[in-house]
Amino acid sequence: MQVYLNGQYLDQTEATVSVIDRGFIFGDGLYEVIRSINGNLFREKEHLDRLNEGLSGMRIKLPANLFNSLSEISRKLLFQNKLMEGEATIYIQITRGAAYPRTHTFPEPNVDPTVYVSADTFTPHTRLHQRGVDAITVSDLRWMRCNLKTVQLLPNVLARQQAWDAGVNNALMIRDGVVTESPNANIFAAKDGTLFTFPISNYILNGITRGVVLEICKELQLPVVHQPVREEELYELDELFFTGSTTDIQPVIEINGKKLNGGKPGPIVRKIQEAYQQRLYASVEKKK
Q1: Which residues, in sequence order, are CB contacts of 103 under 8 Å at separation 6+?
Q2: 207 vs 43: CA distance, rounded Å
Q3: Structural domain for 222, as ranges
Q4: How far apart (Å, rounded) are the C-alpha atoms in residues 220 and 211?
Q5: Residue 32 · residue 149 · CB < 8 Å
Q6: Buried b or exposed e, range 76-90, using 16+ CB within 10 angstroms
Q7: If 0-12 CB within 10 Å is exposed, 13-18 middle and 19+ buried, where does residue 239 land?
Q8: Engineering a disulfide at 239: which of 52, 182, 203, 266 sits with its beta carbon 3.0 to 4.6 angstroms away?
Q9: CA 5, 91, 169 angle in degrees (round to 5)?
């Protein structure tokens, strides 16, 4: 598997990062995951725009020419790794770079950011999309800047592991009595034909797939309220589902052992799944 690291294309077994890299020492970096279908990067501009916003928010100075080359790098990796057919993912990670001495302030003078890009095969979770998944509620212990897609994912890892230990697929994260996100996806809930989702703020990531779902809701004339669901309201919901670049549209049919909609995906999520699949594979169909 070929990867890109700081200007070089290397075998992944030969790619190494310094032990004084601030991504390793502090988690001082950002990442993006972009879906590829037959070499077409789905919502690439939106992903790169979000990455650029994150770089600005964290004050990581990546040269414009290097940022603009990320598209070319991604496609070259898809080609080199024979991933131009079928499904794949592009992973982009940018850290503030390697700096010594270790200090909590930014390096002076500035150091070159570390840029890493990889491509890998991907298999959609089709069975889970059709059947639905179970989840538990956990406390949202993340920091207050969840809108930045940083590599500081330890709270997410612990939450997902808590779900795994409980024998369920995922978790609903609760902060101040309301549902925010899952460890790796945004959340929508449905009640009496209206969808509810946490409003864009520093408490959630502004998901790319979330944005696609909002487009679909507008097209289907499904009302959306940008308001979080309270924890005590969870069991009164008609439907609930996760959204994400590799999660797609994933129904939640059971929470803390209690079933939603009789333990089956509901009609609203089915409509959104269908519309999302049409968008996801539209560019592929056009080429045929």
Answers
A1: none
A2: 11
A3: 126-283
A4: 14
A5: yes
A6: bbbeebebeeebbbb
A7: buried
A8: 266
A9: 140
CB 169 within 8 A of CB 226: no
Q: In this structure, what CATH number is given to the domain that contains residue 195? A: 3.20.10.10
pLDDT digits (tens, 9 = 90+) for 15-39: 999 999 999 999 999 999 999 999 9
3-state secondary structure of 88: strand
Query: Is residue 83 domain-shared with residue 175, that is, in the same domain?
Result: no
CA nearest to 242, candidates 217, 272, 284: 272
Note if 259 is an active site residue.
no
Number of domains, the chain: 2
Q: Which of 45, 61, 82, 149 is catalytic?
A: 149
Residue listed under structure tokens 């560019």: 283
Same domain, residue pair 49 and 168: no
- 263 contacts: CB under 8 Å, gap ≥ 6: 132, 253, 254
The residue written with tokens 């009164």 in the block is 236
pLDDT tens track for 125-184: 999 999 999 999 999 999 999 999 999 999 999 999 999 999 999 999 999 999 999 999
- Domain boundary, last residue among 80, 103, 121: 121
CATH of the domain at 69: 3.30.470.10
Q: How far apart are CA 58 and CA 85, in angstroms?
A: 35
- The answer to whether 126 touches 251, Cβ cutoff 8 Å, is no
Domain boundary among 103, 121, 139: 121
Distance CA 73, CA 77 (A): 6
Q: Which residues contact 33 (CB under 8 A, 6 or more apart)?
A: 47, 89, 90, 91, 92, 245, 246
Over residues 229-280, the pLDDT tens digits come to 999 999 999 999 999 999 999 999 999 999 999 999 999 999 999 999 999 9
